[in-house]
Write a structure and sequence with these properties.
The chain is an alpha+beta fold. The chain contains 3 helices and 13 strands. Strands 5, 6, 7 and 12 form a 4-stranded antiparallel sheet that branches. The chain has a 3-stranded antiparallel sheet with strand order 10-9-13, with no helix packed on it. It is rod-shaped and about 125 Å long.
C-alpha cells in the first residue's frame, strides 16, 4: 500500500503487513510528523450464492395424426427428477495479524525502510549561500563586539604595538622644550657612540606643579625604537613661571639610531 504524510505530503510504499488491518501509529522520516495510519481494506467474506437450477426443457407437442389413422393414447410423462445443488464451500478465513503497540524500535525501523519517493544521491538539497553568509556576518559582529567590550573593560594586551603609548600625556601647565639644535649625536675618538640633549621645563600655570620623569627615545631609519632611557628632573616641584634646565648625555647608543624623541614618561 501507499501512504502519504499529512504534514509534508511525502509518500511511502510499505507492505500491508507493516500497517496491519487495525492500523498503527507511524512517523515520517523526512519531517518527523507522527499520525495514525488506517489498515488496508479486506475483501468481503459474503458466501457466493449457488446458481439456480435450470428448468427442464418442455417436451415437443406430438404431431397430429392423419384422419384415417387411429389416435394413439398419450404417453405418461416421467416425473421430474429433483435437482440436487451442492453448497459452494466458503473461502478460507484470512488469519488476522497480531498488531503490537507502536514502539520506538518499530518507528525507527519504519523510518529506516527504503522508499521510492525518498531523495537519493546525487539529488541533494541546495545550500542557501545567502543564509550562510548572513549567519557568518552575525557571528563576526558578535565576536568583534565581545573583543571591544573586553578591551574597554580590561584594557589592550601588552603584546599589542598600540597597547601602550610611547609618551605620557603630561600636564598642560608644564612646557617641555628640547630643540633639535641642542641635541648632539657623534662618535667619540675611541669609537664610542655619544648622544647628548639639553632642554628646559617651564611651569606656565598659576599653581605649583610636580615635574614628572622625562623619557628620551632613539629610533632608527625605519622608525623603530632602538634605545630609551629615563631622565629624572633636578627639581621635583616648579612654582608658577619657574623653569629648570636639563642636560643629559649617554654613551654606547646603537649606531642605527638616527632620530631622537623626548617627552614625558608614561605612567
Amino acid at each position: 500500500m501507499i501512504i502519504a504524510c499529512p504534514a509534508c505530503s511525502t509518500r511511502y510504499v510499505v507492505p500491508d503487513s507493516a500497517i496491519g488491518v487495525d492500523g498503527r501509529t507511524v512517523r515520517c522520516a523526512k519531517c518527523r510528523h507522527s499520525w495514525f495510519q488506517d489498515g488496508p481494506d479486506l475483501p468481503s467474506r459474503e458466501p457466493t450464492a449457488a446458481p439456480p437450477a435450470s428448468a427442464p426443457a418442455p417436451a415437443p407437442a406430438p404431431a397430429p395424426a392423419p384422419a384415417s389413422a387411429p389416435v394413439a393414447a398419450p404417453e405418461t410423462e416421467a416425473p421430474e427428477a429433483p435437482v440436487s445443488a451442492e453448497p459452494v464451500p466458503e473461502p478460507p478465513a484470512v488469519p488476522r495479524p497480531v498488531v503490537r503497540p507502536a514502539s520506538r524500535a518499530d518507528d525507527a525501523a519504519f523510518e529506516d525502510s527504503a522508499s521510492s519517493f525518498d531523495r537519493q544521491p546525487p539529488f541533494r538539497p541546495r545550500r542557501n549561500m545567502a543564509k550562510l553568509w548572513t549567519m557568518a556576518g552575525i557571528a563576526f559582529a558578535v565576536l568583534v563586539a565581545v573583543l571591544i567590550a573586553l578591551a574597554v573593560w580590561l584594557g589592550l594586551p601588552r603584546w599589542l604595538p598600540a597597547a601602550h603609548a610611547t609618551f605620557g600625556a603630561g600636564n598642560p601647565d608644564l612646557v617641555l622644550a628640547f630643540p633639535s639644535e641642542r641635541q648632539d649625536r657623534r662618535t667619540l675618538p675611541n669609537g664610542t657612540e655619544y648622544f647628548g640633549a639639553s632642554g628646559t621645563v617651564t611651569n606656565v600655570g598659576k599653581q605649583p606643579q610636580e615635574v614628572p620623569p622625562i623619557l628620551i627615545v632613539l629610533r632608527d631609519a625605519k622608525d623603530k625604537v632602538v634605545y630609551t632611557w629615563d631622565v629624572t628632573p633636578p627639581r621635583e616641584m616648579l612654582k608658577p613661571g619657574e623653569s629648570v634646565t636639563i642636560n643629559e648625555a649617554v654613551t654606547d647608543v646603537p649606531k642605527s639610531a638616527k632620530v631622537a624623541e623626548i617627552g614625558w614618561k608614561p605612567e
